[in-house]
Amino acid sequence: MRMALSLALWLLAASLLPACGNKPRSPDWEVNAQSALERYVQAYMKGGGARAEAVEFERARRELESTGQPGLVARAELTRCAVRAASLVFEPCQGFERLRADSPAPERAYADYLAGTVAAADVVLLPAQHRPAAVGRGGVAAVKAIEDPVARLVAAGVLFRRNQGSPELLTLATETASQQGWRRPLLAWLGVAAQRAEQAGALAEAQHLRRRMDLVAGER
Prior knowledge:
Order of helices and strands: HHHHHHHHHHH
Distance between the termini: 47 Å
Strand content: under 5%
Structural class: mainly alpha
Low-confidence stretches: 1-10, 12-21
Radius of gyration: 18 Å
Number of strands: 0
Number of domains: 1
Mean pLDDT: 88
Largest sheet: none
């Protein structure tokens, strides 16, 4: 029996439950790494604190390093960069770049996708749910069609990075983060919406959005 990671990436797709039938039990490193990565993603999205995030990420990375497979460690680094993109934090994916030379083509393509620079020929290497957004087909509709909320926010972040942050995209990303109770991306997307409202002279809307941000941040 297998369970897929509910993350932005295809990642490990490791077994979380005891093996069924004749399938061998997943190795401990695989189970431990997947669990730690999932806890890291939740800690980051909820804004639970830098220490909690760092502990879980380093735990996952250590488990993956034990395999000696650069591609697996690269996926952990891409997970970190993906959740940052979902929260509109656009920084160089330095942890991955140190592993790029030894990483498989799909990992390199995903890193380029997060940076908004994936080549058309490499789109086929991406997870299927990200391909329409990567080639600019469907716009917001393509992002909305992504079922996994983390992946949906990542795709929204990528479109925003490519200067395709329409009001509809901002609304979709805000609603997605709100439904999951993810403070960090919610504050980021609300902040962009508030800034745009202010620039457009829609002061009442901007004030409403700022009040929502205060509520999310726990400022009473």
